[in-house]
Design brief:
It is built from 3 helices and 5 strands. It has helices spanning 15-30, 76-94, 104-108; strands at 2-6, 9-13, 34-44, 47-56, 61-65. The strands form 2 sheets. Strands 2-1-5 form a 3-stranded antiparallel beta sheet, covered by helices on one side. The chain has a two-stranded antiparallel ribbon with strand order 3-4. The termini are far apart.
Length: 109
């Protein structure tokens, strides 16, 4: 199990789910976009709930291993959807892209 850590909380979820969310978030950040994903997470031992997370550009997100998380949370359909979204974004983002010109205020951040 892995824990997705964000500024407003953390969410214990399956390894594949967390990795897919992390990859999609990075792909979105590279294109200066955000998106909302819905994933399952374990709120307490034995209880699975769902959360909608905004990920991508200017959204802090981390993923950490959690060895005491219990039984692995699996949701292949969600993983596939998130992975396909990341691949599609990379494909579209790489075609005809112009060099990025940074404005002064972006350097100051």
């Amino acid at each position: 199990m892995k824990r997705i850590v964000m500024s407003f909380g953390d969410f214990l979820t399956g390894d594949e789910i967390a990795d897919a969310v992390s990859r999609y978030s990075l792909a979105l950040a590279k294109t200066h976009q955000t998106e909302v994903v819905e994933i399952p997470y374990r709120s307490t031992p034995g209880r699975v709930e769902r959360v909608r997370l905004q990920i991508g550009w200017l959204v802090d997100i981390g993923v950490a291993d959690d060895r005491e998380g219990g039984r692995e949370l699996l949701e292949p359909e969600t993983v596939q959807l998130i992975q396909e979204s990341a691949v599609a974004l990379k494909r579209v983002g790489s075609l005809g892209e112009e060099p990025r010109s940074w404005t002064r205020w972006e350097y100051d951040l």
